[in-house]
Every structure is written in C-alpha cells, then in structure tokens.
Amino acid sequence: MNVLICGERGFIGRHVTAALRAQGHQVRGLRQTVNGQPQALDFGDATTPARWRPWLDGVDAVVNAVGVLRDTTRRPLSVVHARAPVALFQACAELGVRRLIQVSALGVDASPTAYASTKLAAETALNQLAAQGQLDAAILRPSVVFGAGGAASEMFRTLARLPVLSMPAPAFTAKIQPVAVQDVAELIAALLGPQRDWCGTVACVGPQALTTAEFIARLRQEMGKSAPLRLPLPQLVGQAMARVGDLVPASPWCSETLSLLSQDNTADATVFAQLLGHAPRMPGLATVSS
Known about the structure:
Oligomer: single chain
Shape: globular
CATH class: Alpha Beta
CATH superfamily: NAD(P)-binding Rossmann-like Domain
C-alpha cells in the first residue's frame, strides 16, 4: 500500500515508518521531494480539505501520528490536534482514501486538558465520517509510550539514574500502563495488513499498571541499582515545577503533563493483544535499545 504518515519524523512516526517499510509498504511523509524540489506541509496551514488534496494523490491509507503537548502561537493545539486532522479526514473522504488510522491518547474522554479535548474533537469528527460509511477508521489510544527517541522516555531514564526520586505527588499514586513504541508501530502495521478490515477504537497499553514512580524504580532496577529513596513533592512545588517546564519548549514536563498524570491512565489490553497477535511486551531498557 502507499501510505501517508503525518508526523513521520516524530517519536511514534519514525517507528511506524520503519515497521511499514519492513512490511513492504511505500511510505511518504509531509516532507517530500517533488520535481527535485523539497516541499513540506505545515499543519498550521492545512486546515481545509483543499490544502490536503495534493498530498493524498496516489495514497491508499493515512496514518496521523501528530501530537504536541503545548499550546503555542506557532502550533496551537486546536489546529494541530483538531482543525488540521479534521480537514485531512474530510479530504480523505472526498477522494476515496478510505483507510485512516488516528493516533490519539488514552484518557482523552476523561481529562479536562486542552491536549485531551482537542484530541477528542478529532476522534469525534473521524467517528462521524466512519458512521456515515465514508471512512474505514481505526483510532489508537496509547497510554504512556516508551521507547528509543521519546522525550518522556529519556526523562524517565534520567530520573532512574538518581538515588532520590523526587516528583510531584501524583507520580506516586496515579497509575499508568506504559506501552512499548514497537508494539504501537506493530499494531499500525497489522491494521494496514492482516487486520486491515478492523475498525474501531483500541486502547494500546502494556501488560502492567503501575505508578510513574514504580515504573521509574523498575528502570532503575534494570540498571542494576538499588531502590531509590522516594520523596513526593508538595502540591504547590509540583505545580511550580510544571510552570517552569512550560517555559522550556524541549521539556516533556509541563502543566499539561502534570494534569494528565494526575489521573489513572490504564485499560484492558485484551483487544490490543488480539490485534497484535501476541501479548504486549513490558517496556524497559531493552525496548529502548532495540
């Protein structure tokens, strides 16, 4: 199949691109060379179906793996997560590009954050087109994705090296279900291969629910280090750290992250495992290096 991947240079997108090419698919992204000239499509300029049509020429399926944590003037969440994807979905429907895979996030239907609400808006629009018979859609809702090249993954690894684990209190109470990025990429490859007829929403989660602190301690144990001293931070300190993170664009820690990690982010892995054809692997240092 000829597959357009939006976000092909991002953390998840890079792994998806590799998995699809390994399966023999032809993959293109939003940065292409046309007639010897480099061209790129910016999500900020792609808010109408007409803007997407040239990029869908000859495409059989689309994977949207674009996501940002921060609301910025250059890349507003409302555009990157909602307006641009919805325009893409509409263009696919108009041109008969039926297979569409949307990478969303677990818990978007239960979080008040701008990140979640904009992701959910895209899901709603996609489901409406699917219900009308215009698209064959699969929506992926991963928990915390862990693997090589992920900013959050590198943050977790850095914290695991420290003898004292000092984090905001929710990191010691709210549960996550980390999923290996390889499993997310394999699922997308399956949905464009042996599972290409499957439609719906699937939670992409690892085999174990644990707190963020427990996950970091597990990584530390894999490093051969002793258990860290756990030091939950007072709420006001955690909020202040998040606001400082808001000012550092490259940091995966910000107010949105704190809010998202303050609620449980877990689900049943049964459907995910069925579509993968195997039990999801437990993310860890081996999955980062592989």
